[in-house]
Automatic annotation (TrEMBL):
Secretion signal span: none
InterPro entries referenced in this protein's UniProt entry, alphabetically: Smr_dom, Smr_dom_sf
Top-rank taxon: Bacteria
PANTHER family named in the record: DNA ENDONUCLEASE SMRA-RELATED
Record Gene3D superfamilies: 3.30.1370.110
One example GO MF annotation: DNA endonuclease activity
PROSITE patterns for this protein: SMR
Listed Pfam families: Smr
Protein name: DNA mismatch repair protein MutS
Organism annotation: Spiribacter salilacus
Residue ranges of domain Smr in the record: 111-192
């Protein structure tokens, strides 16, 4: 059995049949009710969370991986086997870099990257520098190797470590180590305290 209530619509509002006893009872119950002011009403619509653009994150990771790898031009312009590296932030005294080259700073920690590939080496270098900064270490040594086994491509880690260190704001200067400390296969790195 189907129950129907006569309903009349006028200008978008619902008008109930006044003769119905249920309608009269409903109106009596609602006699004191006042509408809630619009500004005090809760917004009950479900809000959808903003979509997470997965492809954008994948693209960003791919770009970062690409930036971490040296290009053929960088190998051509970059470090050769046996070539010394040196870098100082603008504004750093020349005397500080000279002292670093002479090995006058105490090396407080060391990271050896022998046998590492580029991606794990990048993480190791970043973690190492972050830890050294937390421990307030001033001068550290990073051994990247001379790249003698990279016959065709040249010293891969030497080139990328050079680039990574130049990009970090917490690295004040770096240079190839003295021969007793690894020579052109290692770097003294001076960190901001």
């Amino acid at each position: 059995m189907r129950c129907t209530i006569p309903v009349y619509e006028r200008l978008g509002s619902v008008r109930l049949n006044q003769d119905d006893p249920d309608t009269a009872l409903f109106r009596a119950a609602m006699a004191d009710v006042r509408p809630i002011p619009t500004r005090q009403r809760a917004d009950l619509r479900r809000r959808r969370p903003a979509p997470i653009p997965g492809q954008r994150y994948a693209d960003d990771r791919a770009v970062l991986r690409e930036l971490a790898m040296p290009t053929a031009e960088e190998h051509a312009l970059g470090a050769e086997v046996g070539e010394a590296l040196a870098y100082a932030r603008p504004g750093l005294k020349k005397q500080t870099l000279r002292r670093l080259r002479r090995g006058e700073f105490s090396v407080m920690a060391e990271l050896d990257l022998h046998g590492q590939t580029v991606e794990p080496a990048r993480r190791l270098v970043a973690d190492f520098i972050n830890e050294c900064r937390e421990r307030r270490l001033g001068c550290v040594r990073i051994i990247h190797g001379k790249g003698r086994r990279s016959a065709n491509t040249g010293p891969v880690l030497k080139v990328v470590v050079d680039r990574w260190l130049r990009q970090r704001d917490d690295v004040l200067a770096f240079c190839s180590a003295r021969p007793v400390d690894g020579g052109t296969g290692a770097l003294y790195v001076l960190l901001r305290r």
